Amino acid sequence: MGFREDFLWGGATSANQTEGAYNIDGRGLANVDLAPLGEDREAVLMGKIKMFEFDDKYNYPAKQAIDMFHHYKEDIALFAEMGFKVYRLSLAWTRIFPNGDEEEPNEAGLQFYEDLFKECRKYNIEPLVTISHFDVPMHLVKEYGSWRNRKMVDFYERLCKEIFNRYKGLVKYWITFNEINMVLEAPFLAAGLYIEEHEDADTVKFTASHHELVASALATKIAHEVDPENKVGCMLAANAPYPRTCNPEDIWKAKQVENQSYFFIDVQVRGEYPAFTLKELERKGITLPFVEGDKELLKQHTVDFVGFSYYSSSVVSADPEMTDTIGGNLFPSLPNPYLKASDWGWQIDPLGLRITLNNIYDRYQKPLFVVENGLGAVDVPDKAGYVEDDYRIKYLSEHIRAMRDAVDYDGVDVLGYTVWGPIDIVSASTGEMKKRYGFIYVDRDDQGQGTLKRTKKKSFEWYKKVIATNGKDLD
Predict the structure, then answer these.
(1) Is 1 inside a domain boundary?
(2) Global model pTM greater than 0.85
(3) Is residue 179 flagged as an active site residue?
(4) Is 196 exposed, middle or buried (0-12, 13-18, 19+ CB in 10 A)?
(5) Is residue 3 part of a domain?
(6) Is residue 448, in this structure, part of any structural domain at all?
(7) What is the CA radius of gyration of the chain?
(8) Which of 372, 388, 398, 432 is catalytic?
(9) At 190, which helix (H) or strand (E)?
(10) Which of 421, 426, 413 is nearest to 375 (CA)?
(11) Residue 339: band (very low, low, confident or very high) from pLDDT cuts 50, 70, 90
(12) Is residue 474 part of a domain?
């Protein structure tokens, strides 16, 4: 009983939230660099404010982030001390192709990731690499309109060919797109899409989604051709929508919300669009931009595993008068009276993780990978920089226990678990540093001040014990 012997324990980050060094070694500008700290951040991420260049009146936390570009050896050594079996990270597309449409890659960027992967391998840590973690070169946004343009498939293909060949033997586990379903919720964040006033938003988003799904299948094809040992996964943002009442209208609303996220994974796992999505698009008068060969590509090159992020569940209602949603998440949710919430209003629901694992596994019968799960909280260090984060230990232990129950009692096949942010990083949704997730405290504040010194929190030793016992000791 319990987790498989080769269970992949570790942590997850993204390039944009950790690396910094936004203009070093020829790196280009990306959409995710342009998300400012402050009240306008969400509007930029949602594509409601057009921000294609830095504006001097804003602070852009990704410029420096936690400077992992210069600290990665130190950080990976700390991950190894915890016993990590896997480290999920992402590539900055603009380090490898600064504009995105070059014929030849930037060698300095390729070498940086090669060195980073070799550092992981030195400690027997398996890199799990997200090819695009909300990351689009701004040149491609401005010149081609980002993923609304079919040419993006070619540029992504070029990136994939380069990295699969360059890192053969160093990287075996890949994810094509981070939280691919978020393109419908936050189009500029997820896919570099700014919707112009004259455009139909749904048409743009579904067109872009189709191009990403084709690109994902193409990446899977190339990965398997370059190295049959490669394992390629997809990823969705999962949030277990619950109906507010037993009113059938509420239950149907929850089903519709769930379907909107799952249709992406239906395509990536089953190889074709589900009937409910095709019918929805038909009603909206949207024609997907299929070209010759797309259907065969999608059908023949499905993923090897399904990854997902899970932080909280949500509550939905069909009643248009129910508008009192809680904040803190790009997925709107009504309050759940049975759950407590985090400092940012995310409703803490460990059983929801077990429910989600069952739902996804029942739907696809593919190995699952929990690639993001964690608690953003305000950590207050003592004078020595130590944080006694029992609240984080409690959150994670309850979620791991729920995941273990899904394995033991429900028979769900889970490959691994990577805690979101094993080290404090810039928050994707808010841009804050004070919203901390890590086992390792980073001395940096919201304004970018601090020494960047790394300090172990109480949860560091706790997670080390969890990994050492393969999830048996969670106290």
Answers:
(1) no
(2) yes
(3) no
(4) exposed
(5) no
(6) yes
(7) 21
(8) 372
(9) helix 187-191
(10) 421
(11) very high
(12) no
